[in-house]
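Allow me, if you will, to draw on your knowledge of protein folds for a short while. The matter concerns a single protein, recorded as an amino acid sequence and a row of backbone structure tokens. Could you please explain, in whatever detail you think fit, how the structure tokens follow from the sequence? I remain grateful for any guidance, and I place the record below:

…
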Amino acid sequence: MKDSVYFEVLKDSDLYRDYFEWMSDNTTVSNAVDIVRKEFGVETSSFYAVRDYLLINPTPKDRKKFASYLMKTKDGRFKKASDMSKRWVELLKDVKYVRKPQLYYYLRIVGRWTERLFHHQNKLYGQIGVEVDGEIGTIPESFVEMKASEFYKIVETLELGK
């Protein structure tokens, strides 16, 4: 079995639709971060997008200010009953995709793997690589395999800002 597969995802696939919906939802998530930071005076800009609760990478000032609202057992996680967590959940109520789609859910993968998923000019590209003990199952028809050299030309174009 191949250790890496490079591909373009066709527009009529679930992954393509899910990815671009996530891109749209990501704007809402970013706006929600800005709203919560402003409304509650959160210093850190490091938030983790989780639908059901608010999770931050708190600064020392945030730890002190929100000590009674942060869970003792989970660093940076606000209690669900806190006003900030309630506001966060409210702001994300219409968001379908809080996190970027993962290839694991669209391919049959066994073992440990690495993945890359990005878009360029309304096309979606991906790479999946498995470790020595892993295996990639059947590639769906909506994933058009490409040569590694073609894939890396696109990556290079993006890195050079062309």
Notes: The helical segments are 14-40, 60-65, 83-91, 148-160. The longest helix spans residues 14-40. The mean pLDDT is 89.
